[in-house]
Amino acid sequence: MDTVALAAPAFVILINEFWRFSMLCPKCHNEFEQIVFGDIEIDRCTTCKGLWFDMLEKEDLLSIEGSEEIDLGPEQVDPKYAAMRDIECPRCAQTMLAMVDKDQYHIKFEACPACYGTFFDAGEFRDLKEHTVLERFNQMVHTISSKFE
Ligand SMILES: [Zn+2]
Ligand SMILES: [Zn+2]
Question: What radius of gyration do the chain's Cα atoms show?
Answer without folding.
Answer: 18
